[in-house]
From TrEMBL:
Keywords: Dioxygenase, Metal-binding, Oxidoreductase, Zinc. InterPro entries: Extradiol_dOase_DODA, Xdiol_dOase_suB. This is Class III extradiol ring-cleavage dioxygenase. The lineage of its organism: Bacteria, Bacillati, Actinomycetota, Actinomycetes, Mycobacteriales. Residues 62-271 form the Extradiol ring-cleavage dioxygenase class III enzyme subunit B domain. It comes from Rhodococcus ruber. Belongs to the DODA-type extradiol aromatic ring-opening dioxygenase family.
Amino acid sequence: MTIGSAAGHIPAGAYDDLLARVLPVAQTTPEWSPGDGPMPALFVSHGAPPTLDDPIWLDDLHRWGRSLPRPRAIVIVSAHWENAPAAMSGSAAGTPLLYDFGGFHPRYYTLKYDTPDATDLARRLASLLGATGEVHRSTERGLDHGAFVPLMAMYPAADVPVVQLSMPSLEPEALLRLGTRLRPLRDEGILLIGSGFMTHSFAVMRQPELVAHAAAFDEWAADAVSRGDIDSLLDFRRKAPGVRIAHPTSDHFVPLLLAIGAADDPESATSVIDRFVLGNSTRSLQLL
Protein backbone atom coordinates (compact mmCIF):
# COMPACT_ATOMS: atom_id res chain seq x y z
CA MET A 1 0.00 0.00 0.00
CA THR A 2 1.33 3.42 -0.88
CA ILE A 3 1.98 5.58 2.17
CA GLY A 4 -0.89 8.00 2.66
CA SER A 5 -3.45 5.92 0.73
CA ALA A 6 -5.40 4.33 3.59
CA ALA A 7 -9.12 4.07 3.01
CA GLY A 8 -10.89 7.32 3.86
CA HIS A 9 -7.65 9.26 4.20
CA ILE A 10 -7.06 12.29 2.01
CA PRO A 11 -3.31 12.80 1.52
CA ALA A 12 -2.30 16.25 2.81
CA GLY A 13 -5.90 16.76 3.87
CA ALA A 14 -4.88 18.56 7.06
CA TYR A 15 -2.88 20.98 4.93
CA ASP A 16 -5.92 21.60 2.74
CA ASP A 17 -7.90 22.37 5.89
CA LEU A 18 -5.20 24.74 7.13
CA LEU A 19 -5.20 26.66 3.84
CA ALA A 20 -8.96 27.00 3.88
CA ARG A 21 -8.80 28.50 7.37
CA VAL A 22 -5.77 30.76 7.18
CA LEU A 23 -5.26 31.97 3.62
CA PRO A 24 -7.85 34.77 3.96
CA VAL A 25 -5.68 36.36 6.67
CA ALA A 26 -2.25 34.94 5.81
CA GLN A 27 -0.96 38.22 4.40
CA THR A 28 -2.19 40.44 7.21
CA THR A 29 0.87 39.87 9.42
CA PRO A 30 2.81 43.16 9.50
CA GLU A 31 5.99 43.08 7.44
CA TRP A 32 9.30 43.43 9.26
CA SER A 33 10.63 46.94 9.78
CA PRO A 34 13.94 48.01 11.34
CA GLY A 35 12.09 49.02 14.50
CA ASP A 36 11.29 45.34 15.08
CA GLY A 37 14.97 44.58 15.66
CA PRO A 38 16.75 41.57 14.15
CA MET A 39 14.68 38.64 12.96
CA PRO A 40 15.30 35.52 15.06
CA ALA A 41 17.20 32.42 14.00
CA LEU A 42 15.17 29.21 14.03
CA PHE A 43 15.81 25.50 14.30
CA VAL A 44 12.80 23.67 12.87
CA SER A 45 12.14 19.95 13.11
CA HIS A 46 10.66 19.62 9.65
CA GLY A 47 9.10 16.19 9.54
CA ALA A 48 8.24 14.63 6.19
CA PRO A 49 5.33 14.78 3.73
CA PRO A 50 2.95 13.21 6.32
CA THR A 51 3.50 16.31 8.46
CA LEU A 52 0.93 17.75 6.07
CA ASP A 53 -1.53 15.22 7.54
CA ASP A 54 -0.91 16.28 11.16
CA PRO A 55 -3.22 19.19 12.11
CA ILE A 56 -1.50 19.79 15.46
CA TRP A 57 1.95 20.07 13.89
CA LEU A 58 0.67 22.30 11.10
CA ASP A 59 -1.14 24.59 13.53
CA ASP A 60 1.98 24.84 15.70
CA LEU A 61 4.08 25.83 12.69
CA HIS A 62 1.50 28.29 11.44
CA ARG A 63 1.14 30.01 14.81
CA TRP A 64 4.91 30.29 14.97
CA GLY A 65 5.06 32.06 11.64
CA ARG A 66 2.20 34.39 12.63
CA SER A 67 3.98 35.29 15.89
CA LEU A 68 6.87 36.85 13.95
CA PRO A 69 6.97 39.91 11.72
CA ARG A 70 6.61 38.78 8.12
CA PRO A 71 10.24 38.50 6.98
CA ARG A 72 11.54 40.31 3.94
CA ALA A 73 13.07 36.99 2.82
CA ILE A 74 14.07 33.57 4.15
CA VAL A 75 17.35 31.67 3.97
CA ILE A 76 16.92 28.02 4.92
CA VAL A 77 19.48 25.25 5.33
CA SER A 78 18.01 21.75 5.22
CA ALA A 79 19.33 18.41 6.40
CA HIS A 80 18.67 17.07 2.91
CA TRP A 81 21.25 19.01 0.95
CA GLU A 82 24.96 18.66 1.55
CA ASN A 83 27.21 20.29 -1.05
CA ALA A 84 30.66 21.82 -0.90
CA PRO A 85 31.31 24.57 -1.61
CA ALA A 86 28.03 25.98 -0.39
CA ALA A 87 25.37 26.13 -3.09
CA MET A 88 22.15 28.10 -3.49
CA SER A 89 18.87 26.82 -4.87
CA GLY A 90 17.15 28.45 -7.81
CA SER A 91 15.95 31.97 -7.10
CA ALA A 92 13.48 32.49 -9.96
CA ALA A 93 9.83 32.93 -9.09
CA GLY A 94 8.00 29.62 -8.92
CA THR A 95 11.11 27.42 -9.10
CA PRO A 96 9.70 23.84 -8.97
CA LEU A 97 9.99 21.90 -5.74
CA LEU A 98 12.35 18.96 -5.31
CA TYR A 99 10.30 15.93 -4.26
CA ASP A 100 13.18 14.14 -2.56
CA PHE A 101 11.22 11.25 -1.05
CA GLY A 102 9.79 7.95 -2.21
CA GLY A 103 6.92 5.57 -1.54
CA PHE A 104 4.24 8.15 -0.82
CA HIS A 105 0.82 8.76 -2.35
CA PRO A 106 1.04 10.52 -5.75
CA ARG A 107 -0.65 13.62 -4.37
CA TYR A 108 2.49 14.57 -2.41
CA TYR A 109 4.38 14.86 -5.70
CA THR A 110 1.94 17.42 -7.07
CA LEU A 111 2.05 19.89 -4.16
CA LYS A 112 3.11 23.41 -5.10
CA TYR A 113 4.80 26.19 -3.15
CA ASP A 114 5.42 28.91 -5.69
CA THR A 115 7.57 31.44 -3.88
CA PRO A 116 8.26 34.88 -5.40
CA ASP A 117 11.44 35.98 -7.13
CA ALA A 118 14.44 35.81 -4.79
CA THR A 119 17.10 37.19 -7.12
CA ASP A 120 17.97 40.06 -4.77
CA LEU A 121 18.34 37.62 -1.87
CA ALA A 122 20.60 35.35 -3.95
CA ARG A 123 22.79 38.33 -4.83
CA ARG A 124 22.99 39.35 -1.18
CA LEU A 125 23.96 35.81 -0.18
CA ALA A 126 26.64 35.64 -2.85
CA SER A 127 28.01 38.97 -1.69
CA LEU A 128 27.99 37.94 1.97
CA LEU A 129 29.56 34.52 1.49
CA GLY A 130 32.12 35.55 -1.11
CA ALA A 131 32.10 36.64 -4.74
CA THR A 132 35.03 34.46 -5.85
CA GLY A 133 33.20 31.28 -6.73
CA GLU A 134 32.79 30.23 -3.10
CA VAL A 135 29.03 29.90 -3.57
CA HIS A 136 27.71 27.73 -6.38
CA ARG A 137 24.34 28.57 -7.93
CA SER A 138 22.16 25.52 -8.60
CA THR A 139 19.64 27.45 -10.65
CA GLU A 140 17.45 24.44 -11.47
CA ARG A 141 17.28 23.06 -7.93
CA GLY A 142 14.07 23.76 -6.04
CA LEU A 143 13.36 23.61 -2.34
CA ASP A 144 13.55 20.10 -0.89
CA HIS A 145 11.04 18.75 1.62
CA GLY A 146 13.16 19.86 4.57
CA ALA A 147 12.49 23.40 3.36
CA PHE A 148 9.06 23.42 1.75
CA VAL A 149 7.16 21.24 4.25
CA PRO A 150 7.57 23.59 7.25
CA LEU A 151 7.34 26.74 5.13
CA MET A 152 4.03 25.63 3.62
CA ALA A 153 2.57 25.82 7.12
CA MET A 154 4.51 28.82 8.45
CA TYR A 155 3.98 31.02 5.37
CA PRO A 156 1.09 29.38 3.50
CA ALA A 157 0.58 32.30 1.11
CA ALA A 158 4.05 31.60 -0.36
CA ASP A 159 4.58 35.36 -0.43
CA VAL A 160 8.11 35.51 1.01
CA PRO A 161 11.22 35.09 -1.21
CA VAL A 162 13.17 31.95 -0.23
CA VAL A 163 16.63 30.65 -1.06
CA GLN A 164 17.86 27.32 0.21
CA LEU A 165 21.54 27.07 1.04
CA SER A 166 23.38 23.76 1.15
CA MET A 167 25.30 22.42 4.11
CA PRO A 168 28.98 22.66 3.12
CA SER A 169 29.79 19.82 5.52
CA LEU A 170 28.23 17.65 8.22
CA GLU A 171 30.85 18.83 10.70
CA PRO A 172 29.09 20.78 13.47
CA GLU A 173 31.83 23.42 13.47
CA ALA A 174 31.21 24.11 9.77
CA LEU A 175 27.51 24.76 10.37
CA LEU A 176 28.28 26.96 13.36
CA ARG A 177 30.67 29.05 11.24
CA LEU A 178 28.14 29.29 8.42
CA GLY A 179 25.49 30.53 10.84
CA THR A 180 27.89 33.17 12.16
CA ARG A 181 28.56 34.40 8.63
CA LEU A 182 24.84 34.63 7.92
CA ARG A 183 24.07 36.50 11.14
CA PRO A 184 24.11 40.01 9.58
CA LEU A 185 21.09 39.08 7.45
CA ARG A 186 18.90 39.07 10.55
CA ASP A 187 19.41 42.83 10.86
CA GLU A 188 17.98 43.17 7.35
CA GLY A 189 14.70 41.44 8.16
CA ILE A 190 15.78 38.08 6.75
CA LEU A 191 14.72 34.96 8.63
CA LEU A 192 17.42 32.29 9.03
CA ILE A 193 16.26 28.70 9.47
CA GLY A 194 18.18 25.51 10.15
CA SER A 195 15.81 22.67 9.24
CA GLY A 196 16.50 19.24 10.67
CA PHE A 197 14.99 17.09 13.41
CA MET A 198 15.82 17.06 17.11
CA THR A 199 15.90 13.27 16.91
CA HIS A 200 15.81 11.36 13.64
CA SER A 201 15.53 7.62 14.20
CA PHE A 202 13.77 5.12 11.98
CA ALA A 203 14.74 2.44 14.53
CA VAL A 204 12.50 4.13 17.13
CA MET A 205 9.64 4.17 14.64
CA ARG A 206 10.05 0.42 14.10
CA GLN A 207 10.78 -0.41 17.75
CA PRO A 208 8.89 1.93 20.09
CA GLU A 209 10.69 0.44 23.09
CA LEU A 210 13.76 2.41 21.95
CA VAL A 211 12.04 5.76 22.55
CA ALA A 212 13.91 6.19 25.84
CA HIS A 213 17.09 6.77 23.83
CA ALA A 214 15.46 9.54 21.81
CA ALA A 215 13.99 11.09 24.96
CA ALA A 216 17.38 11.05 26.70
CA PHE A 217 19.02 12.75 23.72
CA ASP A 218 16.26 15.35 23.48
CA GLU A 219 16.54 16.21 27.18
CA TRP A 220 20.33 16.47 26.94
CA ALA A 221 20.21 18.71 23.86
CA ALA A 222 17.53 20.98 25.32
CA ASP A 223 19.59 21.40 28.49
CA ALA A 224 22.83 22.09 26.60
CA VAL A 225 21.11 24.68 24.42
CA SER A 226 19.50 26.40 27.41
CA ARG A 227 22.93 26.76 29.04
CA GLY A 228 24.61 27.92 25.84
CA ASP A 229 26.97 24.94 26.09
CA ILE A 230 28.16 25.13 22.50
CA ASP A 231 31.24 22.98 23.18
CA SER A 232 29.06 20.03 24.23
CA LEU A 233 26.73 20.49 21.27
CA LEU A 234 29.68 20.51 18.88
CA ASP A 235 30.89 17.27 20.48
CA PHE A 236 27.44 15.68 20.62
CA ARG A 237 28.64 12.42 19.07
CA ARG A 238 30.73 11.71 22.16
CA LYS A 239 28.78 13.50 24.88
CA ALA A 240 25.08 12.99 24.19
CA PRO A 241 23.20 9.99 25.63
CA GLY A 242 21.30 7.81 23.19
CA VAL A 243 23.02 9.41 20.20
CA ARG A 244 23.51 6.18 18.23
CA ILE A 245 19.77 5.58 18.24
CA ALA A 246 18.59 9.20 18.14
CA HIS A 247 20.93 10.24 15.31
CA PRO A 248 22.51 7.37 13.35
CA THR A 249 23.80 10.11 11.03
CA SER A 250 24.50 13.77 11.81
CA ASP A 251 22.58 15.44 8.99
CA HIS A 252 19.37 16.20 10.92
CA PHE A 253 21.10 17.55 14.04
CA VAL A 254 23.79 19.85 12.70
CA PRO A 255 21.32 22.45 11.30
CA LEU A 256 20.80 23.32 14.97
CA LEU A 257 24.39 24.58 15.03
CA LEU A 258 23.60 26.90 12.12
CA ALA A 259 20.80 28.51 14.13
CA ILE A 260 23.04 28.82 17.19
CA GLY A 261 25.82 30.39 15.12
CA ALA A 262 23.36 32.90 13.67
CA ALA A 263 22.09 33.93 17.12
CA ASP A 264 23.40 36.90 19.08
CA ASP A 265 22.70 35.07 22.35
CA PRO A 266 22.80 31.25 22.20
CA GLU A 267 21.24 31.08 25.68
CA SER A 268 18.14 32.90 24.39
CA ALA A 269 16.73 29.70 22.88
CA THR A 270 13.09 28.91 23.61
CA SER A 271 11.28 25.71 22.62
CA VAL A 272 8.36 26.75 20.43
CA ILE A 273 7.34 23.18 19.54
CA ASP A 274 7.98 20.31 21.95
CA ARG A 275 6.20 17.08 21.09
CA PHE A 276 7.11 13.50 20.22
CA VAL A 277 5.73 12.06 16.97
CA LEU A 278 6.34 8.43 16.03
CA GLY A 279 8.95 8.21 18.77
CA ASN A 280 10.96 11.24 17.63
CA SER A 281 11.28 14.69 19.17
CA THR A 282 9.91 17.55 17.08
CA ARG A 283 11.49 20.12 19.41
CA SER A 284 11.94 23.35 17.48
CA LEU A 285 13.75 26.42 18.79
CA GLN A 286 13.78 30.18 18.38
CA LEU A 287 16.94 32.14 19.17
CA LEU A 288 17.68 35.86 19.35
